[in-house]
């Protein structure tokens, strides 16, 4: 049984694929936080910007089989876009708690490229077409290679030099959005300064928040 918080058609807002039309499938649940505000301060990941509890979001629900969830995702992709490769981004919560080979296979059969946004602490199933790893504090990485490493910045226990020799094609700093924490801090300026001083790193901004879409 797959538990999906929400699923929607939008543009990828982050990283090297920013601007690309995408179905986002947000799985429920995470291994680093319960998702409850009362637990945030003591969680293994404390700055999350996302509600991933339950299955009550837009197009959310419980799906008994890979075929059912793949069909649900396929129905959200616009018809008559024959020159674009359909693209689905699995996120969460932590998608590697639920994403499996049968679901990836079904999506490939339907012509989709499959992307994943993960905290990197769990091993992925084979067949993922675009893997984005976003380390969280001192939580050990199980994944040390992929397409992009997207580090939320700054994090006291996850400094960029700890990651810069890993086998990723792209290295991004994403300024921490501290508004979910009720804080104010110029993390965009801090990330900008770091990328200018350390050119291996590129700045990525969350364009969906700037532009005002999901
Ligand atoms: C909500 S997470 C879900 C996927 C996975 N659990 C992970 O952490 O990568 C999606 C993306 O949002 C990023 N993110 C979460 N909270 C953020 C924040 N407050 N500011 C900037 N990026 C954030 C994560 O690092 C990750 O790249
Ligand atoms: N537009 C848009 N792009 C995104 N890229 C990563 C997101 C995520 O929450 O994983 C996200 C999201 O929530 N919305
Ligand atoms: S690991 Fe990802 S989903 Fe889980 S709490 Fe952290 S940012 Fe949110
Ligand atoms: Mg998000």
UniProtKB/TrEMBL annotation:
Positions of Mg(2+) binding: 50
CDD domains the UniProt entry points to: Radical_SAM
Free-text comment on the cofactor: Binds 1 S-adenosyl-L-methionine per subunit.
GO molecular function: lyase activity
Reactions performed catalytically: 6-carboxy-5,6,7,8-tetrahydropterin + H(+) = 7-carboxy-7-carbaguanine + NH4(+)
Every Radical SAM core domain range: 17-214
Keyword terms: 4Fe-4S, Iron, Iron-sulfur, Lyase, Magnesium, Metal-binding, Queuosine biosynthesis, S-adenosyl-L-methionine
Pathway(s): Purine metabolism; 7-cyano-7-deazaguanine biosynthesis
Keyword Magnesium listed: yes
InterPro entries registered for this protein in UniProt: 7-CO-7-deazaguanine_synth-like, Aldolase_TIM, QueE_Cx14CxxC, rSAM, rSAM_sf
Pfam families in the record: Radical_SAM
Protein's UniProt keywords contain Metal-binding: yes
Enzyme class: lyase
Binding site for [4Fe-4S] cluster: 30, 45, 48
Binding site for S-adenosyl-L-methionine: 47-49, 93, 134-136, 174-177
Cofactor: Mg(2+); S-adenosyl-L-methionine; [4Fe-4S] cluster
Stated role: Catalyzes the complex heterocyclic radical-mediated conversion of 6-carboxy-5,6,7,8-tetrahydropterin (CPH4) to 7-carboxy-7-deazaguanine (CDG), a step common to the biosynthetic pathways of all 7-deazapurine-containing compounds.
Subunit note: Homodimer.
Family membership: Belongs to the radical SAM superfamily. 7-carboxy-7-deazaguanine synthase family.
Protein name (record): 7-carboxy-7-deazaguanine synthase
UniProt source species: Halomonas citrativorans
């Amino acid at each position: 049984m797959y538990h999906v918080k929400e699923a929607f058609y939008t543009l990828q807002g982050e990283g090297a694929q920013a601007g690309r039309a995408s179905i986002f499938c947000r799985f429920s649940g995470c291994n680093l936080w319960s998702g409850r505000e009362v637990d945030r301060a003591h969680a293994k990941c404390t700055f999350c910007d996302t509600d991933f509890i339950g299955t009550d979001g837009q197009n959310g629900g419980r799906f008994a089989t890979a075929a059912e969830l793949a069909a649900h995702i396929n129905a959200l992709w616009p018809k008559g876009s024959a020159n674009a490769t359909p693209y689905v981004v699995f996120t969460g919560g932590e998608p590697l708690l639920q994403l499996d080979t049968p679901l990836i296979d079904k999506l490939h059969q339907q012509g989709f490229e499959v992307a994943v946004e993960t905290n990197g602490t769990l091993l992925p199933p084979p067949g993922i077409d675009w893997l984005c790893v976003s380390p969280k504090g001192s939580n050990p990485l199980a994944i040390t290679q992929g397409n992009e490493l997207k580090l939320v910045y700054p994090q006291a226990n996850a400094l960029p030099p700890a990651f810069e020799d890993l086998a990723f094609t792209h290295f991004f700093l994403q300024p921490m959005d501290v508004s979910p924490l009720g804080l104010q801090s110029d993390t965009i300026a801090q990330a900008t300064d770091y990328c200018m001083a350390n050119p291996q790193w590129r700045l990525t901004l969350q364009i969906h928040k700037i532009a005002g879409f999901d």
